[in-house]
Amino acid sequence: MLLVCPLLRAQSDDLPSRTIPLPKLKGTTYEMLNLISERSGYLFMYDSKVIDSNRKVKISEGDYTLKEAIALACGDAENIRTRTIGNHILLYKAETKPAEKETPAPSPAGSYFTLEGTVRERETGDPIPYCAVGVVETGMGTITNQNGQFLLKVPDSLQNAYIHVSHIGYEAQRFPARLLSENNADLYLDTRFIPLEAVIVRLVNPQKLIKDMLDHIPHNYSDKPYYLTTFYREGVDRKRGFANLTEAVFRVYKTGYDGAAEDRVKMVKMRTISNNRETDTVIMKMKAGVNACLMLDVIKNIPDFLVLGEENMYRYTKIDMAVTGDRLAHVIAFEQNPGIKGPLYKGELYIDENNYALLHARFRIHPDYIKQARSMLVVKKSKSVEITPREAVYTVSYYPRNGKYYVNHTRGDLIFSVKKKRKILSGTAHVHTWFEMVTCNIDTVNVKRFSVAESQPARNVLSETNYVYDETFWESFNTIMPEEKLSEAISRISSKIEESVAKEKN
Question: Are 499 and 164 contacting, i.e. CB atoms less than 8 angstroms apart?
């Protein structure tokens, strides 16, 4: 246990001069900073790899300045530095503060700065995957990966902007971009509790809520074409390790919600990273990829579980209320009717309580019938193997901008059992293939349909496409950070990496 002298001072040039009362207590640095936040109204940002959140401290009851309170919580007061913007305080250590980064070479869109961090749950400190991270009042953004990490490249003209971070079930937060550009910081979201009056059981007809959602599509979603700049990735994992990863940046021409024409994608650049030792194990091609991501826009491509009528194949149940950002949503569960034995879907819909917008949907092929869905999921396979689907899960989320909702993130996770025929002792391998696309920018000005010649066939298997290597790589394009497990796997096979990057097509 460490006892920190209350006379120590955190070094700072801009901390507010105010005093807060603290009780006698002991705990961790993380708990102490949360208490200081409650008493002062200031929110702390820091890298938990630099400032030890689990460090044990104790203090005596008394009134402390913010400088003293921070010194008590963090220790090592001589090296603690702070920077304040609004109600946010960035904490870092003098000896570990990163050196000024070299300004990246200007991209076609101009120079930019990089924001990097990890989004965590305040109560537990656990990372929160798939948070929406966007620049306020723009269509620019990304999502956190499964480790809660994000990296966002922002034009220099937005130095004074705020970053909006949100996820279903949490209180949305805004953070100054300038503080994030200083350091890799942990950002904390609070669980948002639903007001008692919203929890009171009410007679709610779930089918009517879905009908209201469908009726409000013309108000909530754009009927005019628009462009999305998206980052896409697909990969294959096996029990014994990483097999391959394909990443790409697309320019997507999206027709309005009622457009009869298909969406079109234009390749900007891509790369494929393969584990040569695993190439002989990728013995099947999945019905997944770019086209699946586009089809997961369930507002434009209405699925059977959103088709209501006398012969509807699904039953619906209102199961909960949830929050996403500053909105309250009804959670509707659906499942195929008991009399239907084929592979349909079950899942949940999140419908905004006030404007009936669909905010989020998560669904899967019904587990009882997943084995019957092989033809739905596998394009082709080797004759020497038996393939059995085990799970197929899909998600889609929508994000508001200027009064309209746009598709923000789509993802699919497919798990299969693979067994070689006529080899009793060969065992069964489990293959996990996944794909996802995140919207990084929205453009509604001067939108024109891509020609067929410049469009990427969305139904092609992307990893089989040949491209020319481009040393400039991602430039200023936003991407999804690789997860730690994936990043480590890529590092281990770095000597055998095969990369191909498409040159940008103007």
Answer: no
Quickly tell me which residue has 């309580």 as its tokens.
353
Kindly give the pairing relationship between strand 345-352 and strand 185-189. Answer: unpaired
Q: What are phi and psi of 278, to 5 degrees?
A: -105, 0
- pLDDT tens per residue across span 257-284: 988 788 899 988 887 776 655 444 444 4
pLDDT at 286 over 80: no
Residue 445: name the closest of 278, 222, 233, 285 by CA: 222
Q: Are 294 and 265 in contact (CB under 8 A)?
A: yes
For residues 474 and 249, the answer to whether their CB atoms sit within 8 Å is yes
Q: Nearest 5°: CA angle at 502, between 499 and 506? A: 165
Give the chain's length.
506
Kindly report, residue by residue over 219-258, the tens digit of the pLDDT.
Answer: 999 999 999 999 998 888 776 666 677 888 899 999 989 8
> Beta strands of 66-201 (E only): which ranges?
80-85, 88-93, 112-121, 132-135, 141-143, 149-155, 162-166, 173-176, 185-189
Which of 153, 109, 161, 157 has its CA nearest to residue 479? 153
Written as six digits, the tokens of 86 are: 């609004």
Q: Are strands 112-121 and 185-189 parallel, antiparallel or unpaired?
A: parallel
CA 314 – CA 299 distance, rounded (Å): 18
pLDDT digits (tens, 9 = 90+) for 390-404: 899 999 999 898 889
Check residues 461 and 208 and name the one with the higher pLDDT.
208
Asked if 492 and 264 touch (Cβ cutoff 8 Å), the reply is no
**Could you tell me which of 289, 326, 267, 311 has the C-alpha nearest to residue 455?**
267
What single-letter DSSP state applies at residue 256?
-
Residues 348-388 have pLDDT tens digits of 999 999 999 999 999 999 999 888 888 777 766 566 678 88
Q: What is the pLDDT of residues 143-164, one digit of tens each?
A: 998 889 998 888 888 888 999 9
- CA distances 210 to 300, 393, 398, Å, are 15, 21, 16
Maximum Cα–Cα distance for the chain, whole Å? Answer: 77
Model confidence at 292: pLDDT above 60? yes
If one counts every other C-beta atom within 10 angstroms of the C-beta of residue 402, the result is: 10
CA dist 335 → 188, 288, 304 (Å) = 35, 23, 11
- CA dist list (Å): 62 to 6, 23, 25, 32, 42: 10, 7, 11, 14, 19
Output helix, strand, coil percentages for the chain, rounded to the nearest 5.
Answer: 20, 40, 40
What amino acid is encoded at 442 in this protein?
I
Chain centre distance of CA 296: 16
- 3-state SS record for 39-61: HHCCEEEECCCCCCCCCEEEECC
